[in-house]
């Protein structure tokens, strides 16, 4: 089987592990920088050019599309879809999960637990935004932030109002969410492959830091999920149409709350914390998917 991994760098941990896992199972794996892909859009013979040469035919593609290049990256994924190549995560699913507002609206429609979230356009509605999530403390999020960047905690009504006014003045779209105090700076990353949670870890925020992202100093450790948490993670990935996803949960007084669904979850932290060969699980899923086609 020939597998392409759409990634900016072959040296990235997640990309490297996927290459290793694929080759260990006897497959030919090639890393393709999706920003170097040129697309020939034709009715009967769509193709992808790479470094001036047409790419060979692949059996499967694993997209590892960075948040800052979602539009072009998903266009490349769509091109492979046009070529009838098996794509692990579809272009539509990646786009839906990257749009935080759209993602939350889809999850809410499916009845999946979420923090109370508000969104509005007019600066005149700031007080209503704050009121809808139960007041301060609350969390303010940029719609396009990743790795904990663009997420801030406002501990008072006035600080929340000032921050929201600043973002509105700069025409930066944001979400306002309730702050889950009982989570105590800890969240859970569930790695979903197919219809299974193959690994899960907790991430504890650094002292004085409410964000638990590993890039912000969060400490990972393996964790045992409750049946509700496992079901919530699987349902969230399915709602977004993702076959491989990182689903981030918080433990709240009203059950598991989904914070985010990531279409290109990092593998280093969760493999190190749990000892699970997540990359191998992804390759195994591709093998089974091709057999079923």
Automatic annotation (TrEMBL):
Cofactor: Mn(2+); Mg(2+)
Entry binding sites for ATP: 141, 178-179, 187, 211-213
Domain annotation ATP-grasp: ranges: 104-287
GO molecular function list: ATP binding; metal ion binding; ribosomal S6-glutamic acid ligase activity
EC numbers on record: 6.3.2.-
Record-linked InterPro entries: ATP-grasp, ATP-grasp_RimK-type, ATP_grasp_subdomain_1, RimK, Rimk_N, Rp_bS6_RimK/Lys_biosynth_LsyX
One CC-aspect GO term: cytoplasm
Entries under SUPFAM superfamilies matching the protein: Glutathione synthetase ATP-binding domain-like
Residues the record lists as binding Mg(2+) 1: 248, 260
Keywords: ATP-binding, Ligase, Magnesium, Manganese, Metal-binding, Nucleotide-binding, Plasmid, Protein biosynthesis
Co-factor note (free text): Binds 2 magnesium or manganese ions per subunit.
Chain residues that bind Mn(2+) 1: 248, 260
GO biological process, one term: SOS response
Family: Belongs to the RimK family.
The name this protein goes by in its record: Probable alpha-L-glutamate ligase
């Amino acid at each position: 089987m020939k597998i392409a991994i759409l990634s900016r760098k072959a040296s990235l941990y997640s990309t490297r592990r996927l290459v290793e896992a694929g080759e260990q199972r006897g497959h030919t794996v090639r890393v393709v920088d999706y920003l170097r892909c040129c697309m020939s859009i034709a009715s009967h013979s769509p193709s992808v050019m790479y470094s001036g040469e047409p790419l060979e035919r692949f059996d499967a593609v694993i997209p590892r599309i960075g948040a800052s290049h979602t539009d072009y990256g998903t266009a490349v994924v769509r091109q492979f879809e046009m070529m009838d190549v098996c794509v692990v995560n579809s272009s539509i699913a990646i786009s839906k999960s990257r749009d935080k507002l759209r993602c939350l609206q889809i999850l809410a429609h499916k009845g999946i637990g979420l923090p109370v979230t508000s969104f509005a356009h007019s600066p005149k509605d700031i007080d209503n935004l704050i009121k809808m999530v139960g007041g301060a403390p609350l969390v303010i999020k940029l719609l396009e932030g990743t790795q904990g960047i663009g997420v801030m905690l406002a501990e008072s009504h006035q600080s929340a109002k000032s921050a929201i006014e600043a973002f509105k003045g700069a025409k930066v779209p944001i979400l306002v969410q309730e702050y889950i105090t009982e989570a105590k700076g800890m969240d859970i990353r569930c790695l979903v492959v197919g219809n299974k949670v193959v690994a899960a870890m907790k991430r504890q925020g650094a002292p004085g830091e409410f964000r638990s992202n590993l890039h912000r100093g969060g400490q990972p450790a393996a964790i045992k999920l409750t049946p509700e948490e496992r079901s919530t993670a699987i349902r969230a990935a399915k709602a977004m149409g993702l076959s491989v996803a990182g689903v981030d949960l918080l433990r709240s007084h009203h059950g598991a709350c989904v914070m985010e669904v990531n279409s290109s979850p990092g593998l280093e932290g969760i493999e190190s914390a749990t000892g699970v060969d997540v990359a191998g699980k992804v390759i195994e899923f591709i093998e089974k998917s091709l057999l079923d086609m």
